[in-house]
Amino acid sequence: MDKIINQLxxxxxxxxKIDVRNDKVSKASVGWHLEHLLLILNSxxxxxxxxxxKDYKPxxxxxxxxxxxxxxxxxxxxxxxxxxxxxxxxxxxxxxxLMNLAKERLEATKNLPEKSFITHPFLGDFDKKTTLRxxxxxxxxxxxxxxxxx
Length: 150
Hints:
Blueprint: H1 2-13, H2 30-49, H3 62-70, H4 92-109, E1 117-120, E2 124-127, H5 128-149
Antiparallel strand pairs: 1-2
């Protein structure tokens, strides 16, 4: 959880650079990457509160194993579902709003049972601990892209 808090602090430090683009690295702006990762973060943290831990069904998947243990996300190869694309050009206000919501939801996860879970569309069920690892890895992936853009 502390790693995600550190990422949120990094996002805050990047707010003045949200309009920066570098088409050699990504077709999207810094702000797009920040808003996208916050949309995933908020949706997943909310999802943890909406499932019944009794329904958690972990399954082994080689893709899941590789991702969670090595953090490998190939750039430009995986398309996020449309609901996780920023609807408009990200603004400092929209990113701050999502960031504050993420802080609240992250704090709320402390009280959730360990078997609270989300179902990832490609990788299956993630319990609370695995969800937090997934979120850190996904955010890290986009923050690396932001670093390369800058």
